[in-house]
Amino acid sequence: MLHQHAPAVERLGMPAFRTGQEALHGVAWMGRATVFPQAVGLGATWNDALLRRVGEAVGREVRAMRAADPRVGLNVWAPTINPLRHPLWSRNEEGYAEDPRLTAALATAYTRGLRGDHPERWRTAPVLKHWLAHNHERDRDTASTSLRPRVLHEYELPAFRGPVRAGGVAGVMPAYNLVNGRPNHLSPLLASALRTWTDLPLVVCSDAYAPSNIAGSQGYLPDHEQGLAAALTAGVDSFTDHGTDAAPTVARLTAALGRGLITRADIDAAAARLLALRIRLGAFDPGPDPFDDEAAFDTPEHRALALTAAEQAVVLLKNEGLLPLRPGTRVAVVGPLADEVKLDWYSGALLRRTTPLAGLRAHRGVASVEFAEGADVVRLRMASGWVTVPEAGDQDAGAGGQAAAFDPALLGGRTDLPPLTVGRASGATSFTLTDWGDGVLTLRAPDGRYLSVADDARVRASAEAPGGWVVRETFTLEPHGDAHVLRHRGSGGLVGVAEGELTVGERGEPLHVETVERGEDAVRAAAGAADVVLVVAGNDPHINGRETEDRSTLALPPRQEALWRAAHAANPRTALVLVSSYPYAVPEADAALPALLWTAHGGQAAGEALARVLCGDVSPGGRLPQTWYARDEDLPELLDYDLITARATYLYHDGAPLYPFGHGLSYTTFGYAGLAAEVVDGTLTATVTVTNTGAVAGDEVAQLYLSAVAPSVPRPHRWLIGHRRIHLAPGESREVTFAVPADEALGFWDVAHGRWCVEPGAYTVAAGASSRDPRATAELTVDGERPGPRPVSTAGLAAADWDESEGTELVDTTRVSGDAVAAGPDAPGELLFRRCDFGAGAREVRLRAARAEPGSATVELRVPGTGCRVTLRVPSTGDRYAWTTVTAELPEPPTGVHDLRLTLRGQVRVDRLHFN
C-alpha cells in the first residue's frame, strides 16, 4: 500500500490504486483532453474564480476519463505552487506567480475546483508540488538550497499554507533538491509545519525515483533501507519508485522493519493516511458515486472555458495605438510560432487546436492574412550524397504522437517509417531549419514531420512535434573544417551514413548546408505588403528550458531578434507577440516597436483567443505574474534563494524592471479613488473605488499593496496583500473591498525570537494597476509589539538565525532536524547578528561546532564598538554531525545591546553559541 502502484487486496475487496495523475492544466499523459493555458498563463489571469472553474472542469474530465480507462487516477498531482523566484528556472511554465500570496490564492481556487463541494466525498484529491524551495533543475537531486528562516516563513511556506488551510488539498509532493543540506523527502517541516495546518490526514507522495536518491545520488544515508526508513518516519506515505514495480520498495521497507529502523506503527500511520484519501474519493462506497452524474469530457462548456482562460491570459505589454487592429486591416503573421500550438511536458493531447494564423484568418474583421514562418529552408549534402526523405506510403504522420502514454518518458520514438537516405541532388529534400537559440536546431520535412532519432539510432522524418522525456528532435551543427557535423542532442551522437541510411553514432559524416530560402527575406516580403505585421516569437516548451534543463539567458534567440528587426525595417507598424513559458529581456524591441504582447502557451484555444484580443473583441486584461527584467545582470545566481540579500523579485529588486510584476495594459483606462484602510478585530480592511474612464468595456485587476514606512529590519519595497479582477463597462464604477488577516498581511519573521511579528508603526496602503503603478494611497498606523533585542545572555544564539551573511551556507545539524551554518575552505564566512543583549555582562562564550576534515578551523567573535574580540579554534571532530563545544573567555565582557560578528575560517560547521 505504500508504493505508488498499490495492488488489489482481493480478500478485503480492495481494488488496485495508484497515486499520481498529472493534471496541471488539463488531464495529462492519458491521451486527448481539454488543454487549458499553461499554469503561468492561468497565473496571468489573476482570476481566482476562473481558476476554480478550470479546476472543476479538469476534475470532471478526470472522472469521465477514468470511467473509460481505469489507468486514469483520481489522486491528481497538481498544481505546482513553487513561487516563480527566478525566471531562468525551466519549469517556470508550471507555477502561477513570483508572489506567494497570489500563488496561494490561485492554488486554493484550483484545488477547490478539483476537490469539489461535496461535504464528504472528493471529486479528485489534489497533491501540491514541490515541497520545498525548488526553482532549479541544475543538479536538482544533489544541490542544496540554502534557505534562511525569513525566506522560509515569509516566502516559501505561505504559498503552501494558504491552499492547505482552505481544505482542498489532499497532500504534497517533496521536491528532488535538498534544503539546508537535508533531502526534502526527509524534511522535518512535513511534521512541524505542513501537518499542523489542517486536521485532514495529508498524504505525502514522493517524487519519481526520489526515494532511491537518498542513498543513491545524494549519498545522504548509507543504504536504501535506511533511506526509505528515514523518509517514512519523516512523513512520506507513498513511494514513487521503480515505475510500476513495487517489489524493490516493499523489500527495502520490509528489511528496514526487520532491522528496527521503522515500526509497525510507522507503516500503519502511512497506510491509514492513504486509506483515508481513498475513502474521501469514495473508493469503498457501495452504489453510485456523487460525482458520476457530473463527469463530463470535451463539453461545449469546457471548450468555452478554455477560450475564456486563453483570452484572460493575454498581457498587453506596450501599445502606442497600433492595437486593436482596425476592421479591414491587411495583416502579415510571421515567426516560428505563428502557425503553432505548442504543448509542454504536462499537457494532454489536443482534441482541437487553433494557431494564431488560423485564428486571424477566421476572424471576419481581418481583410487578408499573409504568412511567413521566418525559418531558413535548406538542403543537406553529405559526402556520400544529398539527404532525402523516402516516400512513407500511407502511414499516418501523427500516429503514436498523440497516443495515451501511462508514462510518456517510456516512448521510444517511431520506427514504422523508413530512415532518411542519401542520393542524387535531384531527389534532395528541402528542410525547414529552425534555430531555437544556444545552437539548438530542429529540421522539418515538407510534410510537417520533424527529424527524429528512435531507439534503433536511425534518423527519420517521423515526429509530429519535439517532445518526450529525452527530446529526440533537436540537433546542433558543429564546425568541421569547411563543413559541419550534425550532433543529435538527445543521444549525444553524430549523424552519419551506414548502408545508405542516416544513423547516429560515435562518428559523423561531414555535411554542407545549402540555403534554399532565407527566412528573413520571406518575412520582409510579407511585412512590406501588409498594413500591420505581427511577429509571433517565443519558445517551444520542450527545447532550451524544460524539466531537467534550465535556461541560460533571458534574451530572445538571436534568429528571432533578427526576424522582428527585419519585419520592422520593412514595416514600422510591427508588433511583437511573445508566446512563451517564461519572461524575456527585450528592451530593444520595447524601445523600437509600437506594440508588444505576451501570453503563455494557451492550449487548444490559443489562436482564437489571441485573434479576439488583437482585433478588439476582447480588451486585454491579463497581468504579469512575475517581473520581466531588462537584462541577465539583474538576476541573482540561480541557486541563490536568499531573495532579501540578492534583491530579487518585485519584493526587493532595486533596479528598474523592463515590465513590473502586475503590469498589463488595456484598450481602455481605469481610475482609482477613495482608498481607505483600517485594522479592526484582527482584520485589515481596505476599500477603493475603481472606474472605467475609457470608451470600451474591459477588465481591470485591482491590486492592493502594503509597505512599511520605517521598518526595523529589511522589508520588501511593497508586497501584495489582495487582488480582484473586475469587468467594467465604459463609465462604470465599482467599490472593491479587500479583507485580509492583519497579522499575515503586516507581519514578518522575527529571527531574533523565532516568531511571527507585527511591528507597530506607519504603513502605506496602495491600490493600483501594478506593483510600480499606485493610483491611490492611504496611511495606516498599526499597534503591535516592537521586536526586542536578541536575548543571547539567557537563550543563547542559533547560528542559522543571522541577520546578514556572506560566504556561508545553511546545513543540517543532524540528519533528522536542525539547521546550522557552514563555511567553505576557499574564503572566510561572515555572520552578523544585530542587537544582541548581553545583559549585565558576558564573560564566557561556548561554541557548538563540528569539522569533518583533518586539522582545525577558527571562528572569530567580535562585538563592534567594544574591545571584545576572541578567536575559537575548532578541532577536527571526524564527522560533520560530531559536534563539540569550544569555550573561551571574553576579553572586556560586553554588556547591554550590541551587534555581534562571527568570521568562520576553514571548513567548519557552527550550530549555537551560549554566553555566561
Automatic annotation (TrEMBL):
Q: Does DNA-binding show up as a keyword for this record?
A: no
Pfam families listed in its UniProt record: CBM_6, Fn3-like, Glyco_hydro_3, Glyco_hydro_3_C
The record's Gene Ontology biological-process terms are: arabinan catabolic process; xylan catabolic process
Query: This protein is called what?
Result: Exo-alpha-(1->6)-L-arabinopyranosidase
Q: Which GO terms describe its molecular function?
A: alpha-L-arabinofuranosidase activity; beta-glucosidase activity; carbohydrate binding; xylan 1,4-beta-xylosidase activity
> SUPFAM superfamilies per the record?
(Trans)glycosidases (SSF51445), Actin-crosslinking proteins (SSF50405), Beta-D-glucan exohydrolase, C-terminal domain (SSF52279), Galactose-binding domain-like (SSF49785)
User: Family, per the entry?
Assistant: Belongs to the glycosyl hydrolase 3 family.
Function comment: Catalyzes the hydrolysis of a non-reducing terminal alpha-L-arabinopyranosidic linkage in ginsenoside Rb2 (alpha-L-arabinopyranosyl-(1->6)-alpha-D-glucopyranosyl) to release alpha-D-glucopyranosyl (Rd). It is not able to hydrolyze alpha-L-arabinofuranosyl-(1->6)-alpha-D-glucopyranosyl (Rc).
Q: Does the keyword Signal feature in the UniProt annotation?
A: yes
Alphabetically sorted, this entry's keywords are: Hydrolase, Signal
Residue span(s) of domain CBM6:
795-916
